[in-house]
């Protein structure tokens, strides 16, 4: 399949590389040209503009936030203007349900197709093609995009015909991950201050009732104090918690834990942790009880 790929960050570069490995023809665009050059060495065609990347059967966006997706889609010579009729925009970004609705409507008006397909997994999972894809859109379109999802992930979950459903599930999932990070961080700070070894504590947790990837991955980062380089930046963690709160407000669903997490991420960012991995929010309790700040 001829695929345009826009956004070669920690996740996107690995996803695009896996599309190449699977035999797809990939045209890649990124604001930082060095990342395009690196992917071109693996066989990708370098694009010098968003419009050039849209000369394809499908274009995948993997970008940081609503503003970035909005800019490349609706801006001058953006995806909406350049993507051929009948071609598909696959948004793998974690974006608001409101933007997902807008993307679906505007692409339909232009005779284009749209699928929301955000992914669960950190950069190491992206590199190993072990992401979990959460897709929603017209059934025939989602099915047609199956080869793309198979190339980047280990399993695809289809959540219906409304793209916004995939985005809401992704937002809710990131909220749950942040909740685990905070709670594990608090528990670890408690036992560590009493002299319990954090690695030993983590082994106990993950060998008993908490044997799940989220506990093993983020518990490990907390136990080791491993927050740089970030696999997922703390600033993006704040963004996703705010997306959860916005969705909760729109649906009239109180999310008191999300409100707490918003304040925790604001504390981390205000004290110098914006560029740390979002796991560092779980280290705030230890800092507040006398340990070093995660940014130190």
TrEMBL record:
Gene3D superfamilies reported for this sequence: N-(1-d-carboxylethyl)-l-norvaline Dehydrogenase, domain 2, NAD(P)-binding Rossmann-like Domain
GO MF assignments: NAD binding; NADP binding; oxidoreductase activity
Domain 6-phosphogluconate dehydrogenase NADP-binding positions: 2-160
Signal peptide (residue range): 1-16
Entry annotated with the keyword Glycosyltransferase: no
Keyword tags: NAD, Oxidoreductase, Signal
One BP term from GO: organic acid catabolic process
Keyword Disulfide bond in record: no
PANTHER family in alphabetical order: CYTOKINE-LIKE NUCLEAR FACTOR N-PAC (PTHR43580:SF2), OXIDOREDUCTASE GLYR1-RELATED (PTHR43580)
Membership in a protein family: Belongs to the HIBADH-related family.
Protein name listed in UniProt: 6-phosphogluconate dehydrogenase
């Amino acid at each position: 399949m001829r695929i345009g790929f826009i956004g070669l960050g920690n996740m996107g570069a690995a996803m695009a590389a896996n599309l190449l490995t699977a035999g797809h023809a990939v045209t890649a665009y990124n604001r930082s040209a060095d990342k395009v050059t690196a992917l071109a060495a693996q066989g990708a065609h370098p694009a010098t503009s968003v419009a050039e990347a849209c000369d394809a059967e499908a274009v995948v966006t993997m970008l940081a936030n609503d503003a970035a997706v909005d800019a490349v889609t609706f801006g001058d010579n953006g995806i909406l203007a350049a993507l051929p009729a009948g071609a598909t925009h696959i948004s793998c970004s974690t974006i608001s349900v409101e933007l997902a609705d807008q993307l679906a409507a505007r692409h339909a008006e232009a005779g284009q197709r749209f699928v929301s397909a955000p992914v669960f997994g950190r950069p190491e999972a992206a590199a190993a093609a072990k992401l979990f894809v959460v897709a929603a859109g017209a059934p025939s379109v989602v099915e047609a995009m199956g080869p793309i999802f198979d190339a980047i992930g280990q399993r695809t979950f289809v959540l219906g015909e409304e793209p916004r459903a995939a985005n809401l599930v992704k937002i809710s999932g990131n909220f749950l991950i942040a909740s685990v990070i905070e709670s594990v961080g608090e528990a670890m700070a408690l036992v560590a201050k009493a002299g319990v070894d954090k690695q030993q504590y983590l082994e106990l947790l993950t060998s008993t009732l908490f044997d799940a990837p989220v506990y093993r991955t983020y518990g490990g980062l907390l136990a080791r104090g491993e927050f740089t380089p970030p696999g997922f930046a703390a600033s993006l963690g704040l963004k996703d918690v705010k997306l959860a709160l916005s969705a909760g407000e729109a649906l009239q669903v109180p999310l008191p834990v999300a409100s707490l997490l918003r304040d925790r991420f604001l504390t981390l960012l205000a004290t110098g942790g914006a560029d740390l991995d979002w796991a560092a929010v779980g280290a705030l309790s230890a800092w507040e009880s006398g340990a070093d700040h995660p940014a130190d």
